[in-house]
Amino acid sequence: MGTSTAVSGDQNQTSASAPHRSEALSPSSPCVVFPDDAPLRLESGQHLAPLSIAYETYGTLNAAKSNAILVCHALTGDQYAASNHPVTGKPGWWDALIGPGKPVDTDRFFIICPNILGGCMGSTGPVSLNPKTGKPYGLDFPVITIGDMVDAQVRLIDHLGIDQLFSVIGGSMGGMQVLEWAARQKKRVATAIPIATAPWHSAQNIAFHEVGRQAVMADPDWRGGNYHDAGIVPKNGLAVARMAAHITYLSEKALQGKFGRNLQDRAARSFSFDADFKIESYLRHQGSTFVDRFDANSYLYITRAMDYFDLETAHGGKLANAFVGTTTQFCVVSFTSDWLYPTRDSKAIVHALNAVAANVSFVEIESDKGHDAFLLDEPEFHATVRGFLGAAATKRGLA
Amino acid sequence: MGTSTAVSGDQNQTSASAPHRSEALSPSSPCVVFPDDAPLRLESGQHLAPLSIAYETYGTLNAAKSNAILVCHALTGDQYAASNHPVTGKPGWWDALIGPGKPVDTDRFFIICPNILGGCMGSTGPVSLNPKTGKPYGLDFPVITIGDMVDAQVRLIDHLGIDQLFSVIGGSMGGMQVLEWAARQKKRVATAIPIATAPWHSAQNIAFHEVGRQAVMADPDWRGGNYHDAGIVPKNGLAVARMAAHITYLSEKALQGKFGRNLQDRAARSFSFDADFKIESYLRHQGSTFVDRFDANSYLYITRAMDYFDLETAHGGKLANAFVGTTTQFCVVSFTSDWLYPTRDSKAIVHALNAVAANVSFVEIESDKGHDAFLLDEPEFHATVRGFLGAAATKRGLA
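^ Those are the sequences you sent over. The predicted structure of the assembly is below.
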């Protein structure tokens, strides 16, 4: 096995084709590179090398290395959970949750947030250069799974010399990684908080992802995945994919309350195809800003990994088998208005954990904000995370 | 006012750009043309002439012309409610409901089903030739409303010499037309059955339509709406729009029950972007077959009309005002698992009708088939329609 090397990225192969491209090849954050002689074996049977994992940390690792929390991000998230995004300049996506004195307290814990395998902010993904060709992988990148993402994160945790994570936390696809960590690395996960997630991807979830992928692939600028060569990005297709996905992130009630049938900057219908309604304007904005910070091929690969996620089938058709022998303490969180990963999905996780007599608490948060609630300032949710981590830390003798 | 002329379509301007194009310009069904000197005044203030309304009929109009039922179709429907589709060859979309001895009994009633204004099966729409240019309207076609569709249908009913319709029936957007008929033509509608519909389009409904429109407009083959000139159609964009919409037509439970995570013609995941899952294969099929029978610009105009539909705002902010003075007998039908137009939307209609002491019955059908239930063989739904029409006909002395 080779020696991993910490780099800060100086590959120089940046391109003007998209603002995020330079971050993919040369991230602003720390990045560890595992060399060619230590390939990552993927679920598909393929091997990937070299492997880069870009990550951010917040807080300080204690001498016993016992206060580390791994934060796993969702589909379009990245390592900048609690720091400004290098492309958009916006605060971290979990800035409300992570920081000094916040529910995930950086005065107490050492938080590690890696960009996932397949991502586009510095970890190896389809934008990365294929060592065989010197060009971006594109569709030559192997199809990956949530388990592969976790195996790549294990490399990072090994590199940081951490034996056991005090906690693994994540929402949505981040929650799927939490479940895979708990299933694959039973001794290395003291506590786990899977939030607004599911043990498998439903037909409806797959359907929405397939619409998004077809939208990207229908864009002639996608060019079979080789758009980087041409210095372009399939922005129209990716924007449509983002718009469709965004509908699933909000509850019907939240959409109605936030936008209703209100018109955008006009007193009456225009009798045209302008964005007459606020909801149209909002979606168009979501679509158009997304393409500046995200890679279209990464979107294809990550949605595919989510569709492939089925912890039950992977464990002989019995979800509880995934957790046999677990000593992890779980806190499962769902939101009442989340129709992407509804409470019944979280309950399936809880039932499986109960079946193996795991230590599990379950909290369903009353919220009308839909799936996105896990990213927002939901006091009851924050109190739940703060309380669970605080009690578990005290129990484990953490300062 | 000019004289309407019945034609069977011989304009000869057909094109190979899409199989449905010839039907748009020269429909297989009867078609009535209202000439230039009888323009239709639209809600936008614009005027449309000439106006063609293509329609099918089933059964026989009695001597008193008192047994006529107008059937209003939904977004992607057409006049072929109970006869084979001239492009696809498939049975009519409401073949289960309309026919001899069926709930809408052609032995007893005379059924009229017009293609809507803005449609692409022979009624005037964006595929029609603009008399000013001799070319298809494209985006020069005026933006229309559900009310405009109804006003165009009124012309047809006048042409057929029918004073009062025994019933106006429709599901989804067809139900919106039913409501507009009841509001605009109070004396001409004896009974009305709005099914799986709403008195206004919600933010979530608008959002899904906007995604579809952006998918169409993002397709370079759309060419600003002038694709017919180039002999092409924006099939990729329209297919994506159809796929996204199709998800909303089925309930989550129906998708899970019908497809679940089942694989399509394979034993294991392919680790590729093939249609591994049955749900992916199904959606791709829905998208690719749709483009052969539907016009992309019609899709834009009709979804826009639906988004603009808000019977409450149109009546001074009070829905009940739409029905003041009504003598129509209503039967409002919803389906439990319909999340596109959920039961609460139907209840809003019922409450408004109650507020003006209208004669209304309301039936919520238990079904796990989602919005599409109104097109399917749902015994309780069919029994409801049969019972309501039968009792009303007997009451009115129809044979």
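The domain at 5-204+310-395 of chain A is CATH 3.40.50.1820 (Rossmann fold). DSSP finds ten helices and 13 strands in chain A.

Shout if you want it in another format.
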